[in-house]
UniProtKB/TrEMBL annotation:
SMART domains: S4. GO terms for molecular function: ribosomal large subunit binding; rRNA binding; tRNA binding. This is RQC P-site tRNA stabilizing factor. The keyword RNA-binding applies. The lineage of its organism: Bacteria, Bacillati, Bacillota, Clostridia, Eubacteriales. The gene is rqcP. It comes from Caproicibacterium amylolyticum.
Amino acid sequence: MRLDKYLKISRIIKRRTVANEACDAGRVLVNGKSARASYDVKVGDTLEISLGAHTVKAEVLSVSEYATKDSAASMYRMLEE
């Protein structure tokens, strides 16, 4: 699944366009490297997202095309906030 879509489906970032812009600006790191919005997210990847003064680190636990509000939180595990 594309990185920008994963960020939206998992509800880490509210809108896909915002996720796409964050990737283009280099504010999203996957396994310590800057990643484009088209990066293919896999289970076990570590995401680091910088949104303003707030930085979020998360580990990908599952990848699915659809997620309800309740199941979205189980797609990742927060490492640092």
